[in-house]
Design goal:
Structural class: mainly alpha
Strand content: under 5%
Number of strands: 0
Helix content: over 70%
Largest sheet: none
Length: 488
């Protein structure tokens, strides 16, 4: 009996051991959960102190917190019956969705969020847009600047091309001038009943014959008076020598002879340079003859088929700008025609009156000097000075100081009348250009193209002024029409 009772006692004790172990395990689990919670709270507090956002835990913290919450349920006790309803289809669907989203989140990179600054950090204003930080005036200057750079580059390339084919350009420009001068004669012959081709041929041939005869007459006069001129020059040099010997400058004859000897030695030592200059003169002569031939052919075709050539040029212009250019072209041609005619008339008057003054003062080569005055009159400002100075020098060397002073008076008087009376009356307002623009254009033309550039500069400025004024007026008129169209 004692044995049985002892066995029962032991059996009851052994039956309680699992329950005690389960209670001990549950207590240890709850203690571990509390330690995990305190560890998470400590980490969150340290993250807040380090400037991190404690309200947004990382993925590890979320998983730890979920594990802690899932373990809050008490451990199952032995002998207890736990009943649970089987999961329905509606409960399984969100689980599948969450599993799919978790899988996709594992394969897709999640953009990192920029942490917010801590509360104690100073407030910093956001940086503005760099474009908004640039002042308005500087932006406008930059826009204008790069456009000016593009235009300057275009003009530089154009000048390089013109310099490479300068002979062709000058020949064509000369043909334009001659065409503007001869066009009224062709129109008059056509009104008289001649066909266009015959009128063009007659006008062109007669015009170039007249210009050739004038050139031949000038050369003949120079060659015919060359001996007389050389004698006059030697006499003038002797007269200058005597004046220097008797002058208050105390110049001796030995000094004058030494200067003459130095000049002779310089010429002797520079024979090669003089020869090369002569060869360059031959090259220039060939280029001049080539330019004359090109100008003759260009003039012939411009007189005969100028209208069709202009229509072909218009087809190269964009279609939107074609009406404006079609209206500006005839006005530019009228300006060029008025300039050429007026310049020819003014130059002819200068040559006639200055030539008469030189002739009555008994200066040799009066006719060649008159022709030079006529030709140099096509170079504004500079041409009149050069031709007048040439006439004065010839008078000084050949006839003495008094005759040179009288020639200077005649040249200045005629040029003053021409500048203040003839040019405003003959040229009118069609080609009126400011004197500053004339000076600058002549200087720029001389630097770019020499004498030919100086001749072309002023008519180019006049034609450009006419074209720009017409285009500006046309643009303003079109703007007014487009503004009034909706109102009508």
């Amino acid at each position: 009996m004692g044995t049985l009772s002892g066995g029962k006692g032991n059996g009851s004790i052994m039956s309680k051991v699992p329950g005690l172990l389960g209670a001990l395990g549950a207590g240890l689990t709850r203690m571990g959960q509390r330690l995990d919670e305190r560890r998470l709270e400590t980490e969150a507090r340290s993250a807040e102190e380090a400037g991190l956002d404690g309200s947004t835990p990382t993925a590890d913290r979320v998983r730890s917190a979920d594990r802690v919450r899932s373990d809050d349920s008490p451990a199952p006790v032995r002998g207890a019956t736990v009943t649970a309803d089987p999961p329905s289809a509606q409960d399984e669907a969100p689980a599948a969705d969450s599993a799919g989203s978790a899988g996709s989140a594992g394969t897709t990179a999640v953009p990192e969020q920029v942490p917010a600054p801590p509360a104690y950090a100073p407030a910093v204003a956001a940086r503005p847009d760099p474009v908004a930080a640039v002042p308005w005036g500087m932006r406008v200057a930059a826009e204008i600047g790069w456009r000016l750079l593009v235009l300057a580059g275009t003009l530089w390339v154009l000048m390089r091309v013109i310099s490479a084919v300068r002979l062709v350009v000058l020949a064509f420009v000369a043909a334009l001038f001659i065409t503007a001068l001869l066009q009224p004669t062709v129109s008059r012959l056509k009104r008289m009943g001649l066909p266009r081709g015959l009128a063009t041929a007659v006008t062109t041939i007669s015009g170039f014959i007249v210009m050739g005869l004038i050139g031949w007459f000038v050369v003949w006069q120079v060659m015919d008076n060359l001996d007389t001129l050389s004698e006059k020059v030697r006499a003038g040099i002797d007269e200058l020598k005597r004046w220097l010997l008797n002058s208050p400058f105390h110049v001796t004859e030995d000094q004058i002879n030494q200067v003459a000897k130095n000049l002779s030695d310089t010429i002797g030592h520079n024979t090669n340079e003089i020869t090369s200059a002569g060869l360059q003169g031959v090259t220039v002569l060939v280029e001049v003859l080539t330019g004359i031939l090109l100008a003759m052919f260009s003039t012939l075709f411009l007189l005969y088929d100028g209208k069709n050539i202009w229509h072909w040029v218009l087809r190269l212009v964009p279609e939107q700008a074609r009406p404006a250019m079609a209206g500006a072209g005839p006005r530019a041609w009228r300006t060029l025609t008025a300039y050429v005619r007026g310049t020819v008339i003014v130059a002819l008057i200068d040559a006639i009156f200055i030539g008469l003054g030189i002739y009555f003062l008994h200066v040799p080569m009066a006719v060649p000097l008159s022709v030079f005055i006529f030709l140099f009159a096509f170079i504004p400002l500079v041409g009149a000075v050069i031709s007048g100075a040439l006439a004065v020098v010839v008078a000084l060397v050949t006839e003495g100081v008094f005759t040179a002073v009288m020639v200077l008076v005649v040249v200045l008087l005629v040029q003053q009348i021409e500048g203040h009376v003839l040019q405003p009356f003959i040229l009118g307002r069609a080609v009126r250009v400011h004197p500053l623009a004339v000076v600058l254009s002549v200087a720029a033309g001389g630097l770019i193209g020499g004498i030919g550039g100086s001749v072309v500069a002023v008519p180019l400025v006049a034609v450009t002024n006419t074209v720009v004024g017409y285009l500006r007026a046309t643009a303003k008129e079109n703007a007014l029409r487009s503004a009034q169209a909706p109102e009508q």
